[in-house]
Amino acid sequence: MFTPPRLSIRAPRVAALVAALLLVPLAALAEGPEVNLELDWQFAVGFGATERGQAYQGDLVYISVQLTDLEGRPLANERLQVSSAAGNMLIEPEPITGPDGMTEVMVIAEQLGDDIIAVSGAGVSQSTRFTVSEPPVDDFAAYAAAMAVPELEGVVSWGDLTDVQVEYSDYALTARFPEKVRRLHGQKVRLAGFMTPLENSERQRHFVISSQPPHCFFHFMGGPASVAEIIAPEGIRFSYDPVILSGTLEIFESSELGILYRLSDARLEGTL
Question: DSSP labels for 54-121?
């Protein structure tokens, strides 16, 4: 009677085979996530820092972010987490990548010295470093005052509006106003300031004014209390000169948008 030969596997060979099978998933895990996260320093706007990785205190820093798979295909709609080691303010701490796999990190450079911006998401993380220096202005207070809208009779004083205590908490503002400012809530007033448009139109229905010319779109020299949101239903033609407006003033003790003052039903009274 024919008996088929027996297959004999020695113990060392069995152990080697089992080890090889076990090492396959471990090796795959060791390769890490199959995505690429790249950070690229763009620029800092405000006082004119031009060196890569350098910003002045008060500047707005732009850092581009791109998320792709290992073949370079963009990964869209991915929520990322951003942190600042120095505690500088992040405009959007959880940006979402667009169709091209890209988004932008914007940081207000408030803290002097080195900062590390870390971005993580989709199982990966990257970081970039920059340094914040003092602005190239001998006397910033005098510089800002010289640029400010002058005090005008019958116009609410920016000196009064900026006499407020502002605190940042969880990316929102809270403010404590003096009584003379609190009494202006709901009142018809006149404000004067420099226009920053929010619409792609010659006549602006929604814009902001500030006590000094804005040196960048997201950050004003006098902080949030030096800016007022303007709602003008009939539209106001854009002007590089300071404008005088009339309307109803609203005051906000807390705001996630960074707005403490809003002038509704605004109308143009003139320019300076």
Answer: EEETT-EEEEEEEEEETTS-B--S-B-EEEETT-PEES-SS-B--TTSEEEEEEE--SSEEEEEEEEE
pTM of the complete model: 0.50
Q: What is the pLDDT of residues 240-264, one digit of tens each?
A: 789 999 999 998 887 777 788 999 9
Instruction: Decide which of 133, 164, 184 is a domain's last residue.
Output: 133
- Helix, strand, or coil here: 235? strand
Residue 143: alpha-carbon gap to chain centroid: 25
Query: Would residue 7 count as lying in a domain?
Result: no
- Name 222's Cβ contacts closer than 8 Å, sequence gap at least 6: 144, 148, 158, 162, 210, 211, 212
DSSP states of 104-118 as a string? EEEEE--SSEEEEEE
CATH number at 128 reads: 2.60.40.10
**Residues 44 and 58: beta-carbon distance below 8 Å:** no
- Which residues form the domain of 255? 140-271
| Token pair of 198 as six digits | 């929010």
The last residue of one of the domains, among 133, 154, 184, is 133
Q: Which residues of the chain, if any, have pLDDT below 50? A: 1-9, 11, 14, 16-30, 217-218
The set of residues, in sequence order, having a beta carbon less than 8 Å from that of 79 and lying 6+ positions away, is 94, 95, 96, 121
